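TICKET #2291
ISSUE: user wants both folds in one file
ATTACHMENT 1:
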Amino acid sequence: MRLLLTLALRNLFRHKRRTALTASALVLGIALMVLGRAWTAAMETAVVEPARSGTLGHVEVFAKDAAADEGGSVSFIMPQNNYRLIPDPPALIERVLRAEPRLAAGLARLMVGALLSNGDASMEVVLIGIDPKARAAVYPAVELRAGRHFVAGEKGILLNRGVAKRLGATVGSTLVALGNTADGRLAAVKLTVTGLWVVKGLEAYEWGACYTDIAAVQELMDVGDGAGVLVFRQRDLEAPVAPIAASVNAAFARDGVPAVAYTWEEMGGPFIGGMLVTRFIARIMDFVMAIIVAAGVMNTALMSVFERTREVGTLRAVGARRSRILAIFLLEAVFLGVAGAAGGALAGAGLILFFGRAGIPAFSEAQRYSYGGDYLYPTLHWGDVTVVPAMMVVICLLAAFGPALMAARMRPAESLRYV
């Protein structure tokens, strides 16, 4: 075995320039793949985590016939135009929490499009009516730029900065929301601005959304105590949510409750769409990078085989088995892969640490939506700097297997004819 290791290392150092070029390509490819994984994870964390804690929750419950007038499929944007509501939402929330202990809290939400006015200024907004008593437990990411959170009964509203600027409204301003009731009549309700909201990481997604007391939206729509959706937050934030939603649906079916539970992935709308596109692009880039690296290693291995045809014939003539010839060339690929993996892991970790402090800037409005802001800050995860390099070592080994097998199958008599 010692002889095999010596021969493998000797050949790598015999062609220093070629070895250095192949190793450099490996280092660069692995470093970019490691950074790419951190970049993808950072995009998911930057947008999806705030979305779950500020609007989506983990499990959403709708009335069974909620989408009957919208094509039969519940969507992210549908609830603001949905008038098939859940009656007595506090009772159903208590029932769900009692049946599913993995859920920590729930709130009732009712959304509607409305015209919001302040004096002569007005603009169309989406009023997100929520139960203020449960906001902190279910929507902890809803924070304040100014003012305070509203309390039950005061018909308070939290504006985003864009709406506040457009309307010229400040904390303490009295606004009028004009909208349609469930049966199509015009209705209005007065709202007092108690603060300006922000969900850090979702600044690019604020649009025209304003949080207000669900009682104010119920009055505007004239729907009694109905809610469009119940939003639940789970206790273990890392646990899979699909089994929880399935358990809730099983309880509904067993008890005859006309409601359906959906996971945050199913209701993620633009947040999940961006995440899926990012994952798809990242996987394509990983595949392309792996192909490029494998082609480089295979080319190096083939050149080594052709250059050492006489050497291989000599080894076979003095009794070296085919398995040993195969092992020599595979060991060269392993040494090359390990060196490239180590260098790539270190370079990738360095890039992640650098951009984790400096940030990756968004160069377009589309990137701002993907990042949830102007900069993205990747985080170093040791899984990224171990899994990717290990995978590339295996790819190097597989890429070199064909040339190594070709060398092992050479016949001594024919190999010795080469000068």
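ATTACHMENT 2:
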Amino acid sequence: MHCHTLRACGTLTSVPSHQQHILQPFELLIGLRYTRAKRRNHFISFISLISTLGIALGVAALIIVLSVMNGFQKEIRARILGVTPHLQVISEGGQLSNWQPVLDIITRHAEVSAASPYVNGQGMLSHDENVQGVMVRGILPEGENRLTGLADKMKAGSLTDLRAGEFGIVLGGDLARALGTHLGDTILLITPQGQVTPAGMLPRLKQFHVVGLFEIGMAPYDNTLALINLEDAQKLYRMGTSVTGISARMKDLDLAPRVAGQLERELPQDTFATDWTRQNANYFSVVAMEKKMMFIILSLIVLVAAFNIVSTLVMAVTDKQADIAILRTLGASPASIMKIFMVQGVLIGLVGMVLGVVGGVVISLNIGTLIPFIEHLFGVQFLSKEFYYISELPSDLQASDVITVASMSFLISLFATLYPSWRAAQTQPAEALRYE
């Protein structure tokens, strides 16, 4: 009876107490044999398979979702910084009059690669019977090319066509479509800064010629942003030689918060510096929070699979009572019995983890081709450009996420084996063999 266990054990002898904490060859051998042996109770094998697949599914889902969240964060940051500067210096009063010395202070900083003044204002654009509210930005075209990647987003015309005194305007693609205007059309810009007339306060009106169209891929910019020359903006908003502020580009954008703090110590008292992390804090905080929540929620899949490991080992311990008793009789210590069943549970978790990591990495690296194939196959579009900032599902696989998910999965599987293995170690040989 139970000859296969005896053969697996060979000449089993007790192990000195100071070596009990080390995994002995016979413990590993028997644990692996129990894992791959054909069971009398097929239900245990089924639960083991479900546990392995559950862990694989949870690990793969976590890696894929974290990669997609990283991709969204990277894509949003790239698109935002494609049209907004890394750092801005503005005045408390809204107008920076003596801005040339401030520009010199900014450009002298070692981490600043470019800087340029700008003017911000609000207005309404009118063409035919269409009217749209806009954010107007006055820029120096040559300075803007050094500050942002907006020149690469031009769909028609060029930023260099914004020449002073010619009152040209560059519009976002969605804004131009909403107005029904095209390159070369004349549109009317209405500013809230009115002028006093005998008939009362009237808004200021100025005609502009559309000299360019851009498309960032984010609705807040494509729908509402209009660019004009800096001098034209100063005349339009009656700012004289003043500007709204100065934009700067960092050599390393992650250093922008530190550079902003350093500049504030050198700038005049009525000015302060702000960086891209403050200006767009809501976007990045929401993405970071969603990433954490998705990690917690999807970790529950791994936890459920770990409970299946507990069930598997509890049933396996019950099924192997006689084998445990024989091993104890041959000299195996309770610690050795515990390690045998821990090997069985850890192997289930390890196989599931490896399968999940491989599946998650493969899908994450190929999600750019997989999602379009599914959309084409079923005739659907997951991310419509009409409703979402990003119409394609991005993915940014990071090794740190893979290591974190794999480590978490393995530790959960390891802890899931402790209680059933401890119960197996408490088995008394005389009680187990009484009815054999």
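RESOLUTION: both attachments delivered.
EXTRA DETAIL ON ATTACHMENT 2: The beta strands are 87-91, 112-127, 130-139, 154-157, 168-172, 186-197, 200-214, 225-229, 245-250, 271-275.
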